[in-house]
Amino acid sequence: MPGLENLQSAIGVLAMIGLVWALSEDRKRFPVRMAIGALAIQVGLVLILFGLPQARGVLGGVNAAVEALGGSTQAGTTFVFGYLAGQAPSPYALQNPQAIFVFAFRVLPVILVVCALSALLWHWTILKWVTRGFGFVFQRTLGLRGPPALATAATIFMGQVEGPIFIRAYLDRLSRSEIFTLMAVGLSCVSGSTMVAYVTILKDVLPNAAAHVLTASIISAPAGVLLARILVPSGVSEELGEVQESEERRYDSSIDAVIRGTGDGLTVLLNVAATLIVFVAFVALVDHILSVLPPMGGAPVTVERVLGYLFSPLALAIGVPWGEAHAAGGLLGVKLVLTEFTGFIDLSQGTTGALSPRSKMLMTYALCGFANIASVGITVSGFSVLAPDRRKEVIGLAWKALTVGFLATCLTAAVVGCLPSALFHGL
């Protein structure tokens, strides 16, 4: 029943906030005002984006733009790799046409193109003003100070390390709570360079995938801020003054922006590919070790099955029905141990089990974040370079940031689950 599904998600919202509060460093300092503001931002943005006819038209345009961007990327990939990109005619008859979808040629090149486009839009100040707009909203509604608010907004579009680069000059002067908030938000969101790649994976199994992925990344930021401030409450900090743009984000010309953006994209692409190879290999190795155990429930014991049972309660809290909780829990485990890329691939292929359309939508929000074990290393190394004097502090907060980032996307999914399903139909 729709009403019971929404109630289940609402209880999940309270349960996840309660869990983080129970783990808080100071349970007497619960940020009530921030909690109201963060949840209001999430609900308000979803209602505006999916409820207003004008906004729904914009989201429809986003879907079309992403489709065009994906098609354009395939044109460039086909020029370089030919039929391996999946578009040019194959030189031989295919017995299994689905096998021509190669992740390295169909998904990863999108990262290159979007990174270059993002740098160009930043140079043209379009993305810069969008970022400042979100930063202003976060500052007013969440009570963040100017630089952390701006870095939080920048993280939505640029990524977990690239966002804080924007306020690099202020990092040494931020409080411990503010540093932790930036780390947690970086793990709660994704970057613009990967959003389109996720849509490429999901477009055939989730209607309006671009709209959901974009919305998920935006509204997970306030969830990350809220849970971070609950776990590590804010303290008194010094004045920071007016935000000055970091030199790392200045380009000499449009050509310079495209070239440097492509270089940044190549770094991201290689990191994604290398991380997937290593961690998928590790999981396969663990599966081989687990194969010596007797079958469980008539099937071999695997990492995905174990994680499915472990995270089933969290899937229930998000709003997934009991019969689908194990499959959804497996996706959450895959996202945490491997990456969100692997989670999205499994979601699109139904690897962990069949899910209803509503559950697929909720899991898209739950998976849409960088909170995985590999990203902890990226966060620690990135902040260690940006603020070397605070490296020891960052290392001490790393696993707490992973916990917050992981739960933040689940909280976002539960908030979406509280809203009527009819809101998302007909886009």
Short description:
This protein is mostly helical. The protein has 19 helices and no strands.
Strand content: under 5%
Work out the number of β strands.
0
**Could you give a short account of the major beta sheet?**
none
Q: Globular, elongated, flat, extended or rod-shaped: what is the shape?
A: globular
Classify the helix fraction into a percent range: over 70%
The rounded Rg comes to 21 Å
Structural class: mainly alpha
Poorly predicted spans: none
Helical stretch count?
Answer: 19
Distance between the termini: 23 Å
Mean pLDDT: 81
What is the string of SSEs from the N terminus onward?
HHHHHHHHHHHHHHHHHHH
How many discrete domains? 1
Notes on the structure:
By secondary structure, this protein is mainly alpha-helical. The protein has one domain. Helices cover 70% and strands 0% of the residues. The chain contains 19 helices and no strands. It is globular and about 60 Å long. The model has no long low-confidence stretch (mean pLDDT 81).
SSE blueprint and pairings:
Elements: H1 2-22, H2 32-51, H3 53-81, H4 103-106, H5 108-123, H6 126-142, H7 146-158, H8 162-165, H9 176-188, H10 192-202, H11 209-231, H12 254-290, H13 303-310, H14 312-318, H15 325-337, H16 340-349, H17 357-367, H18 373-386, H19 391-418
Helix pairs in contact: 1-14, 1-19, 2-3, 2-11, 3-5, 3-10, 5-10, 5-12, 6-7, 7-9, 7-11, 9-11, 9-19, 10-11, 11-17, 11-19, 13-15, 14-15, 14-19, 15-16, 15-17, 16-17, 17-19, 18-19
